[in-house]
Amino acid sequence: MKKSALKKLVAVLASAGLMLLALAPTPASANQTIRLYIGADTNVKDLWEKALLPEFYKAYPDYKVEITYDRNGQNDAQTLAKVVASKATRKDPGMDVIDGGMTVQLGGAGLLWRGTPGLLPNLRNVPQVLIKNGKGGIPYRASLVLLAYNSKNVKTPPKTLAEVLAWAKANPGKFTYNAPSGGGSGFAFVQTVLDTNLTKKEVDTLVTLPNKTLQAKWEKGFETLRELNKVTYGQNGTYPVNNAATLDLLSKGLVDMGPVWSDQIASALKAGTMPKDIKTTTISNPSFTGGPAFLGIPNNSPNRNAARVLVNWVLSPAAQNIIVTGVMNGLPVIPVELLDASAAASIGAVDITTLRPGYLNSNATDLRSAWASKVPGK
Amino acid sequence: MSQSIEVTETSDLAAPKAARLSTLGFFMSLPPVLVLLGFIGVPIVLAFAFSLGHTSGPNEIISLIGQEIYEKDSWWGTLDAYRAVFQDSRFGPDLRTTLAVTFIATFLVVVMALGMGIYQRIVGGKLAMVMISLSLVPLFVPVVIAAFAIRTFYDGNGFLKSLLYHFGIDFPTITMTTNAITIGTIWTSLPFAILMVSSGLQSIPDALIETAQDAGASFLRIVRTIMIPLAFVPIVIAITFTAIGIMGSFTVPYFLGANQPTMLGVEIALFFGPYNRPQLSVVMAFVIFIAASLVAVLYVWANVRSAKQSGRI
Fold first, then answer.
1. pLDDT < 50 regions, chain B
2. C-beta atoms surrounding B38 within 10 Å
3. What is the dihedral of CA A47, A51, A52, A57, to 10 degrees?
């Protein structure tokens, strides 16, 4: 290579480098840019992108929200590691607000900023018990698992878990629930069946603490679930892979009954992808699980002030209205009286503080693994 | 290539140029090697250490978060994680399913690709062209779309079942079975195998086939003694790439298979994510890696054989 050619190459490379620098975002407005990390199903992403943020920008035109999206929180473990590592190495965690299941673990590990009504005024309207359970995670909406059924074929829907099981056995191939590893609705069904053999105190323990010895009491519940292998859809001990697959089977009329997330079925009914014949009901003794979803502000986020502005706004009645009526069809975390009349009417009387919570994450992973080795195909 | 040949034939004046070219060539080939070493080689070494229970250093965070982590009890590590995986009631059936699907699907894919290739080589013509082109369509359909389409087709109220229902046949629903995985993987693997095998057969000189025909050789004999031996390396490449691809597949078994037993690709993802058992998933990954390496040995053997025959080594 001749010298002149070398010079040319250096010049080209240098100008390319300059161009890259010019393309990079200017850091001037960094303290008004909120980096939002979402690790959840697509309806949560839509809630932020299509419903909440356009209104947020109207209220706070100076702020900008950058979304990082991880579908169904599949990379939660790595993201969790990133936040933990950033704390240990005193680096920027790369996110200012986190929406996803891992806020529970981050809160438990003491890595989230604990909201106070002084700095987060709208937190006053949120039930104390939910804030306490969050351990730093800030509850901002809730959803619960409902029993969906095809009203054309099911005239009197079951009222209790025992009746659901009896219905499933009486109608082979017409009931299903998705694998707990693939989504919370199937998980809620499995946990509810297992919980029938545990005392309330034992269930509370599994909700709050890792506990291997109590897990031995699941055995009887798994036996009940194994009995269902012959009568659930497919009748050979196979189950839909995720929440969406259960909804798919319901909408096609392949099954007449199954557990579903309240927000997902409401959205599907509204969008017309679910026939109007599909109705939902709650069951009791025990009820399916449900609970709040939490937002987290990492302790070491360099931009906590802007994060607080966003989170405080999300807890305002205006934003809670959007959560109830918009694409999400979620439940609010503030009293129904504060909402618009139409929004209040659409949710009826669900007390979100009395929802039966799901297991702690480490017990939940054990449940998913145990279910897979003990139930399908056995 | 042509340049380097030129260089060897010209006089001493070209020697510095050759040296420059070889230095340039070395640096040009460096980036992919560095990327492989840095982004794949190092993580593999770390993962292997993790599977043996080395939970400190770069593996510290994942060990803190993961459940059922086995820590080393001697300087080289421990085999406890491997023991746990082999004792897990899911692993045996999963491994059997993975190997069975790989073997059956690869066999059928190669047989079908051979049929297509031989037809094109011997008969040829427009129809063969159209058929080859049609068979390549799956190459341009993303696997996730294909898996979804196959599921819809064979599902409880899918096309196949609905059609046969009109003739009074109650066809079983085959989604969520290992058969569906096999059908799906054949669908997605066939185009590449056809491309590979048919191009291999195309390169056989007409003269050889015509001579054999003139000498009165039967069709089967031409296929057995001329076509397959001469297209041997492309066929082996098709076998190895198909087998390794199927062994590590995720999308098709995830959408079409049963929950249990499933293929190891799905099981590894489940253990890593929903079950939060990263160490056990790494162990399974190494088992699959060993199985794939055995297939790769076939590939290396075939290449060495053909190199020997052509006198390159």
1. 1-10
2. 10
3. 140
Q: Residues of B with CB below 8 A from A81's CB?
A: 61-62, 65
Which band of pLDDT confidence, cut at 50, 70 and 90, is reported for residue A34?
Answer: very high
What length is written for chain A? 378
Res B13: pLDDT: 57
Average pLDDT score over residue span A282-304: 91
Tokens of B224: 């057995």
Closest-CA distance of chain B to residue A141, Å: 23
Most confident of A128-132, A270-274, B168-172, B261-265: B261-265
Nearest-angstrom CA–CA distance, B219 and A177: 55
pLDDT, position B124: 85
Identify the pLDDT of residue B142. 92
Please state, rounded to an integer, the average pLDDT across all residues of chain B. Answer: 89
| Chain centre to alpha carbon of residue A299 | 22
Query: Given a cut of 80, is residue A47 above it in pLDDT?
Result: yes
How is residue A357 annotated by DSSP?
Answer: P
Judging by beta carbons within 10 Å of its beta carbon (0-12, 13-18, 19+), is residue A197 exposed, middle or buried? middle
Q: Do B274 and A234 touch (CB under 8 A)?
A: no
DSSP per position, B67-133: SSPPPPSSTT--SHHHHHHHHSTTHHHHHHHHHHHHHHHHHHHHHHHHHHHHHHHHT-HHHHHHHHH
Which of A76, A233, A377 is closest, CB to CB, to B258? A377
Task: Give the one of A1, A373, A376 whose C-beta lies nearest to B88's C-beta.
Answer: A373
**Could B271 and A369 be called an inter-chain contact, meaning their C-beta atoms sit closer than 8 Å?**
yes
* Sole residue written with tokens 């959803």: A143
> For residue A4, what pLDDT band results from cuts at 50, 70 and 90?
low
Chain A nearest-CA distance from B190, in A, is 26
For residues A249 and B158, the answer to whether their CB atoms sit within 8 Å is no
Share of chain A above pLDDT 90, in %: 56
What domains appear along chain B, each with residue ranges and CATH number?
82-309 (1.10.3720.10)
B33-87 confidence digits (pLDDT tens): 999 999 999 999 999 999 999 998 888 878 877 889 999 999 999 999 999 999 9
Separation between Cα atoms, residue B42 and residue B149, nearest integer Å: 38
* B-chain residues near A1 (CB < 8 A): 20, 24
B252 contacts in chain A (CB < 8 Å): none
Tell me the shortest Cα–Cα distance from A376 to chain B, in angstroms. Answer: 6
Inspect the interface and report whether the beta carbons of B66 and A368 lie closer than 8 Å: no
Q: How far apart are CA B81 and CA B51, in angstroms?
A: 7
How distant is the Cα of B177 from the closest Cα of chain A, in angstroms? 8
- Contact residues, chain A to chain B, C-beta under 8 Å: 1, 74, 76-77, 80-81, 84-85, 179-182, 233-234, 236-239, 241, 249, 252-254, 361-362, 365-366, 368-369, 372-373, 376-378
Query: For residue A57, what are its two tokens?
Result: 């920008």
A to B CB pairs, distance under 8 Å? 85
Angle (nearest 5°) at CA A370 between A368 and A371? 65
Q: Which pLDDT does position B14 carry in this prediction?
A: 63
Predicted local confidence at residue A1, as pLDDT: 43
Predicted complex ipTM: 0.81
Of A239, A362, A369, the CB nearest to B259: A239
Predicted confidence at residue B46, as pLDDT, reads 94
Rounded mean pLDDT, A25-29: 45
